[in-house]
């Protein structure tokens, strides 16, 4: 499966538009962009996800995912790379699309990212007013980079 | 699950003792010993396996495994680290135990390794006469190392 995603910073109040909020904890068995292996606790559920490298535009990326038990996820997290991503995901519908807005905690406090998944690279979608600058394909905003280089340690913000 | 394994070189004729031979192809999404993520085609089946680091003696190691489809394995192999392990596994019963004897091909031709899985670290087992020197815990014989540093390139053999 290829996923087509676009990613944006968030510049305004968005929380009141959410119909659900999900706590997420995730660690990496491999944080290399060429072969990312992620363990994620997503609310009451858990997943193992493997992603390949993005294409040149950073929009389309090979993705493989299997649901695992939360106990398995917790066991696997023990052997993950140091640093775990802790965030709250707000689900917001805007017209026909779903925005996933991640508010980061811990070492990434202050960072809020919105992501939208599209069926094709040319698909039209509505940008709500709280949506900020697009950062699709910018590796600094990959969660796998934020593990090693968290937002609160960035110099140039 | 913790696995307790001991690993040996093979010094004599062993093939006639095998009751089954299975072709194996395996690649690594992460070959770090702290968090190995392996994709394996095993005969007609396929598995994703994650292993943690060994204890000090190199005998006991955290292991997690899920069966996946051969098609998924082939997709995942495309994004694995360069180099794939190609070997034939001979299954040999010796008294109550199973020896898995791997004859390597490709860049690891010439290398033959036997492995036995035990229920406890002190379990007694029979060593058949074709069994050579023990190499348990020697990282040079990890498959994840053989990907990067194959046997035919070793200087000191």
UniProtKB/TrEMBL annotation, chains A, B:
Domain CYTH as annotated: residue spans: 1-148
SMART domains named in the record: CYTH
Alphabetized CDD domains for the sequence: CYTH-like_CthTTM-like_1
Active site: 28 (proton acceptor)
Origin superkingdom: Bacteria
Name this polypeptide is given: CYTH domain-containing protein
Matches recorded under InterPro entries: CYTH-like_dom_sf, CYTH_domain, NeuTTM/CthTTM-like
């Amino acid at each position: 499966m290829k996923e087509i995603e676009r990613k944006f910073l968030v510049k305004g109040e968005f929380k009141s538009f959410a119909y659900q909020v999900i706590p997420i904890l995730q660690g990496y068995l491999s944080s290399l962009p060429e072969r990312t292996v992620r363990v994620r606790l997503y609310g009451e559920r858990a997943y193992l996800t493997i992603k390949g490298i993005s294409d040149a535009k950073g929009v389309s990326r090979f993705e493989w995912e299997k649901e695992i038990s939360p106990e398995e996820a917790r066991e696997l997290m023990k052997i993950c790379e140091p640093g775990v991503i802790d965030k709250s995901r707000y689900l917001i519908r805007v017209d026909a699309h779903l925005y996933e807005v991640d508010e980061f905690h811990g070492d990434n406090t202050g960072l809020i990212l919105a992501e939208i998944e599209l069926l094709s690279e040319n698909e039209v979608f509505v940008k709500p007013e709280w949506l900020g600058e697009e950062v699709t394909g910018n590796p600094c905003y990959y969660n796998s980079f934020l593990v090693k280089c968290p937002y609160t340690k960035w110099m140039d913000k």
